[in-house]
Amino acid sequence: MQAATAYLNAVEQIIQRIRNTQIQAIDQAAQICAESIGGGGLVHLFGTGHSRILVEEIFPRHGSFPGFHSIVELSLTNHNQVVGANGQRQAMFIEHIEGLAGVILRNFVLTPPDSFIVFSNSGVNEVVVDMALEVKKLGLPLIVLVSVDHCTTSGAKHSSGKKLIDIADVVLDNCVPAGDALVTVPGLADPVGPGSTVAAATIVNLLKCALAEKLTAAGKPPKVLTSSYFIGATESARRFDDAYDEYRRGLVQALGGGRHG
């Protein structure tokens, strides 16, 4: 179990680095999101590959709330078959196609006070950089969540020569070292145990907590998806319906159906 303990030790160090270095950036990101949601807008979310997990970690989850709009392309994120139709090879190929982000966003209406979060561990693949550039063309605040170590030590792939950290208004660092895998096993040439999921999910939930605090302080408490453990089955079901109705109204807005107050 030495390798398992080594992974726990590495993750604990990452969480401590997040505590020591990311609180101010998380507060800045939460303020951007609070201005969007509190102003009747949306926080749009985008990630490819494994980063789709973080889009879903924000909403819908117990302890989460509407105000976000998930933009998830199955062609970039559907990995359950690995090989064959809709396989991993295709998804990884599509990640490198410039121009796709503009095609995706053509489906939606993004206007102030909306904001945008892009999730990517590397922060350099063409589609995520393309998306960030498109968002800035629209004049929206951009938050990115990346491994700054991986991003800064990787070469730019987009034809603009830019990486996510070059475009963002706020950079959230998951504090995971370049390469992601954290544990070296004696006799095994390659490291194992990626840390980016644990680290990024931690930051996502720190952001949600800070955002809920800001919205509540502003007199606009969010409609939280609350477990029946806390409030009983009937009230929990009602809360879910209310939150889903709120999400639907936001989706209508994103599809060009007009803003709501």
Keywords summarizing the entry:
7 strands, globular, two-stranded antiparallel ribbon, alpha/beta, Rossmann fold, 261 residues, five-stranded parallel sheet
Description of the structure:
This protein is of the alpha/beta class and 261 residues long. The chain has a single domain (2-257), classed as Rossmann fold. It contains 12 helices and 7 strands. It has helices spanning 2-21, 23-38, 52-58, 74-77, 88-94, 100-105, 126-137, 148-153, 164-167, 196-217, 228-231, 233-257; strands at 43-47, 68-71, 115-119, 142-146, 170-173, 181-183, 192-194. The strands form 2 sheets. A 5-stranded parallel β-sheet has the order 2-1-3-4-5, with helices on both faces. Strands 6-7 form a two-stranded antiparallel ribbon. Helix 2 (23-38) crosses helix 10 (196-217) and helix 3 runs parallel beside helix 10 (196-217). The chain is globular, with a radius of gyration of 19 Å. The relative contact order is 0.18.
